[in-house]
Amino acid sequence: MENTLDIAIEELKLNRSNWKLVKFGDIAIQQKQSVDRDYTELTKYVKGEHMGSEDLHLREWGELTDEYLGPAFIRKFEAGDILYGSRRTYLRKVVIAPFEGITSNTTFVIKANEKKIDKRLLPFIMLSEGFAINSIKNSKGSVNPYINWKDISNYEFPLPPKDQQAQLAELLWAMDEVIEKEMEVLEILKSSSQIFFENAVENIDGKLIPLSRILIPKNSKSHVPHERKKYIGLEHIESGNLECISFSDTSEVLAQCNIIEPRDLCYSKLRPYLDKAFIANFEAISTTELLIYDTHKASKEYVLFHLHSRPFLHFVTGKAFGTKMPRVSHKIIGEFEIKVPEDESIIISKMSLFVSSQKLIKSKIASSKALQKSLINQIF
User: Fold this and answer.
1) pTM for the predicted model, two decimal places
2) Could you read off the pLDDT of 270-300 as tens digits, one per residue?
3) pLDDT digits (tens, 9 = 90+) for 232-271
């Protein structure tokens, strides 16, 4: 598949002589069907946080019975609809709904105008650099910038005729298939490492110690204007990852923040089911929704593996308080006991092999995504 794809990309010769300049609103139709959640058979909902940046696949969602949803969650979507995050458009959140459900009225629900465009091509247009720049440039507000439908509907770009659209759609989806297969390998590696870690901890000798006796809170704060240049918000942290590589500039951060030093252990207390914890590899400031720790009695790596373990996630999810924005505290986290062996090095060394394998496949995924992005921008 990959060799065939390389050849197809190499032979891609774009003759734009018969392409026509169109407006986004000509080929995309906004859906505004509302539902009453008290009288609906729909069971699933999608929030902005469920949508990944530059990822057409919806990998997380919620059930309506999971938590309280505000009055904004009235917009119905159907399987195959495109969901577009109209807030903070620089995050480039575009996903294809795999089922019908409900979303917020700040998420645009979009169908392709199939008289004018092959519907398979529309999501890739929305991932193009030109579309993203238009959305960012026309966004309003500073703290939580948003875009109106009329601003993206007026976006102009060249569109090929229908027969060429089909060929381009097939090529782009073939590239996406390569990425998805690599993602499957990554998920298998993650699952295998989880199983290994839990079995290794169960079978090793050690003392059960509550995290309150292991975690050392770090409470240094940064005030406006911030001296450090990198800011880590919860949106920069990928669920299940052991490190955080994304950040934004601090120039627009107007609130008090935590100070993060390299090697600090960081844990998100908000929505603990999202599984966000990492060891910092650069200095930064962060949202105060992150708890920052040093450790003793156990290494940060050993504790981090526990913070990502299924028993810990089950514990904190069950203990979280608040309906709209469930969270945990240092006190709650501290109640969880982990087994601390005299020598954790055997477990850490074997887990390091899993981590190395995951980094390898992540690097491959990043290369494939970069190629896909380049291809999209060559076309549009």
Assistant:
1) 0.78
2) 999 999 999 999 999 999 999 999 999 999 9
3) 999 899 899 999 999 999 988 999 999 999 999 999 999 9
Q: Is 329 helix (H, G, I), strand (E, B) or coil?
A: coil
Give the whole-angstrom CA distance, residue 223 versus residue 288.
12
CATH of the domain at 331: 3.90.220.20
For residue range 76-112, what is the model confidence (pLDDT) as tens digits?
A: 999 999 999 999 999 999 999 999 999 999 999 999 9
- Compute CA distances 308 → 314, 316, 338, whole Å: 10, 11, 12
DSSP sequence for 105-153:
TTEEEEEE-TTTS-TTTHHHHHTSHHHHHHHHHT-B-SSS-B--HHHHH
Model confidence pLDDT, tens digit, residues 106-139: 999 999 999 999 999 999 999 999 999 999 999 9
Do 54 and 120 sit in the same domain of this protein? Answer: yes
Between CA 33 and CA 25, with CA 131 as vertex, the angle to 5 degrees is 40
132 lies in the same domain as 48: yes
Do residues 149 and 211 share a domain? no
Strands 156-159 and 20-23: antiparallel
At residue 161, the 3 state secondary structure works out as: coil
Interatomic CA distance for residues 113 and 376, integer angstroms: 20
Residue 332's domain comprises: 207-340
- Residue type, position 141, single letter: G
Structural domain total, the chain: 2
Identify which of 146, 173, 50 has the alpha carbon closest to the alpha carbon of residue 101. Answer: 50
